[in-house]
Amino acid sequence: MKREFDIVYEDNHIIAVNKPSGILVQGDKTGDEPLSEKVKEYIRVKYKKPGNVFCGVIHRIDRPVSGLVILARTSKGLERMAKLFQEKKTKKTYYALVSNRPEQDEGRLIHWLVKDANKNFTHAHERQVKNSKISDLAYKLIGKVGNDYLLEVNPGSGRSHQIRAQLAKMGCPIKGDIKYGYKHKNKDGSIHLHAYQQEFIHPIKKEPIKITARIPQDPYWDQVRHLTGR
Hints:
230 residues; alpha+beta; 11-stranded mixed beta sheet
């Protein structure tokens, strides 16, 4: 059976995959099979492992987002990678197609975010409010794609819906993301946000690691590939 994801890095402790949009990373109330279970099955078959297979979720990207997800193959890998994320010792790079050109071609956004769990929506505030958490990201304008604009985004924190909420607050909602103000949804339910790359010092091997996830194929992403050479 054909896999729904591509393996982009694998060692004894972690495994990184390029997730297509539409797949959950971790199980939720929908009951749909998440990426973590799909990767478990891949490991079980590849290594002929009997019984339960360990596959720990280190971080998540939203269901309509594509790109790089790193999972743990061991409890040691899970604990140490989770600490890297918690201490912000990974550099994450995303590509986002947004409506409207930012006022500045590059900059840093700082907002205070409040998650509404009932509506699965994150509110971005320009000042600290009750129950808010500070969130920051850097962005850079790469070029124009059709009527939209391509941004390279480096989030400094890992809040829920952070990039979607902060870019929308700037007046640049992500293509297809009607929840955060884009005018039209994409036919396949995706949004044009792709987790492209992560860089970190491997917590067990102690060597620098750079993992990338190929940009998806569709007419818009194909133009992104032309702009970025990726």
